[in-house]
Write a structure and sequence with these properties.
The structure is a single chain. This protein has 426 residues and is α+β, with helices and mostly antiparallel strands. It folds into 3 domains: 5-162, Malonyl-CoA decarboxylase, oligemerization domain (Butyryl-CoA Dehydrogenase, subunit A, domain 3), CATH 1.20.140; 169-296, Aminopeptidase; 303-424, Aminopeptidase (3-Layer(aba) Sandwich). Helix content is 54%, strand content 11%.
Length: 426
């Protein structure tokens, strides 16, 4: 919801009147004040007053002491669940009639009041961003308080609808993009750190592209962005990819997706990446018909943790082994290891789940401190072929079959002859 200054001023005035009606002050907001605002939002039917009260909830949450967040979420569980009397009546009516209207009534009665509360907060200025931040805090607390899980499911249910593909806007980020967004790219880049403005300028050059999804309600907040390099041949290391001088895109035959970043922790579980990559591939094909290959250069963040998971009896052998092919075979085994469609490595799960093919394992590909710590410098290439994406995805989901290149298949055959075979069963 994009609002003019006049409308925002009017909402502020109505909010102040609403707070006067509630006899609540904006200074020193207490938990009880915030809960009272929430109840008031649900009790008011007038659109103007309801919108103003929703704004008061936003202000109250922003002013709430962080130490009270857990208490707030517990109050949401206790006081903003389904109306149990209404739900019991709906169950009885459904059992008596078993018709479609009764099913609809039952569905509506089963919905927690929290969901309507969140819908009304969403209508307020800064409401959506506040809800995203609210869920970010909830996810931190949920690690030690699983009883908060129902609220998280409410958020996922609503966010999945509010952030569906029809609402998202794909934009190319370049040097003319607003400084606000450019600063956030530097802030949100978590795969390969951007070393200041000069580094960012290089990543936005003619042969280095960046695409992001935005939501029209929060136009200055990227949801997810991907960085792409236009090169000749499939990249096998990250440093040359970041440091080489610009080349003409006309000479490039390969688009390398080398960094994908989710920017909003509060939207975890709402999938954007698969849509983004597929849409960017389509855009690049249309704009650069000379491009033949669409691949990633991806980190392998869980490799060391996997090697250490059952003790370190093989870890030193892995670190000291001279046979690179043998090591690549172990890495390939790790990337294809899992339970059916659920793979062990999160990045492999993301790309293979999107329908990509595991194309190649690269040695000494990321010699940064993080790359060496997480994966001994190994990186992987995943290939996106639009004609195969759907079938690859379905095979993985239905039978656990992973799309791999002939090179990877040969590596996996080595695992049966490797002295480190026991490692693959860890």
């Amino acid at each position: 919801m994009v609002m003019s200054g006049g409308i925002k001023k009017w909402i502020q005035q109505v909010t102040e009147k609403a707070l006067d009606l509630l006899d609540l002050k904006s200074e020193g907001i207490l938990l009880d004040d915030l809960i009272a605002h929430c109840h008031a939002v649900l009790s008011r039917r007038g659109e103007a007053t309801g919108l103003a009260l929703a704004g008061s909830v936003v202000s109250s949450w922003q002013a709430l002491d962080r130490a009270d967040h857990l208490k707030f979420f517990r109050r949401l569980i206790d006081e903003f669940g389904p109306d149990r009397d209404r739900l019991e009546r709906a169950i009885i009516d459904y059992q008596a009639s078993l018709n479609e209207p009764a099913i609809m009534t039952l569905h509506q009665a089963a919905e927690p009041k929290r969901q309507e509360l969140f819908r009304r907060i969403n209508s307020a200025p800064n409401g959506l961003q506040t809800l995203i931040l609210m869920r970010e805090e909830l996810r931190k607390l949920s690690r030690d308080h699983p009883e908060l899980g129902p609220i998280d499911q409410d958020f996922i249910h609503l966010f999945t609808s509010w952030f569906n593909k029809g609402f998202l806007e794909l934009e190319r980020i370049n040097w003319q993009t607003s400084a606000t967004v450019l600063e956030k790219l530097i802030q949100y880049e978590s795969v390969h750190e951007i070393q200041g403005w000069d580094d960012l300028r290089r990543r936005l050059a003619e042969d280095r592209l960046c695409f992001a999804y935005f939501h029209p309600v929060i136009p200055d907040e990227p949801l997810i962005f991907v960085e792409v390099a236009l090169v000749q041949g499939m990249a096998d290391a990250i440093a040359p990819l970041l440091e080489t001088l610009p080349v003409s895109p006309v000479d490039a035959d390969t688009a390398v997706f080398y960094s994908i970043n989710n920017c909003q922790p509060g939207l975890a579980g709402v999938s954007f990446g698969n849509l983004l990559i597929k849409q960017v591939v389509s855009v690049l094909q249309a704009q650069h018909p000379n491009l033949k290959n669409f691949v990633t250069l991806s980190p392998i963040p869980g490799l060391r943790r996997w090697l250490e998971s059952d003790g370190q009896m093989f870890l030193s052998q892995f670190e000291e082994a001279a046979d690179k092919q043998e090591l690549k075979a172990i890495v390939a085994q790790y990337l294809t290891d899992g339970d059916g469609p659920k793979l062990r490595d999160p990045v492999a799960q993301f790309h293979l789940g999107n329908g990509a093919t595991l194309e190649r394992i690269n040695v000494e590909a990321d010699l940064s401190a993080r790359g060496l710590e997480q994966s001994f410098g190994f990186m992987a290439n995943y290939r996106y072929e639009l004609d195969l994406i759907v079938s690859n995805h379905e095979k993985l989901m239905e039978s656990g079959q992973i799309a791999t290149s002939k090179e990877i298949q040969q590596l996996l055959k080595k695992i049966t002859r490797s002295p480190l075979k026991e490692l693959s069963d860890a």
